[in-house]
Amino acid sequence: VALGRGVYKSTxxxxxxxxxxxxxxxxxxxxxxxxxNHNTIYALINNGAVLRTANAGASWQISADTKTQAVALVxxxxxxxxxxxxTNGQGLxxxxxxxxxxVAEIGRASC
Length: 111
What we know:
four-stranded antiparallel beta sheet, 11 strands, mainly beta
């Protein structure tokens, strides 16, 4: 669950939550789970940074930084290496390399 600047995890069906990530630079805009591996989670920050964990939130790394006003992140369930970021006024960005880089799909942005 994302709330404000934090990502929280529950291991007891939502009775209790533990913070697994806190961002100093922006608000968590969206979370997306890799449909092929539920331990891999992506957190989209509203400043365009994409964070990735491969161990269910134990550690996080920056996957990409689009430097856009990002609002949503979607992973293609049929092809998890394809990811989309919806931006506020800069179009739709797409990644075909698992979120390592994004390019403009629709709109006027390029990253």
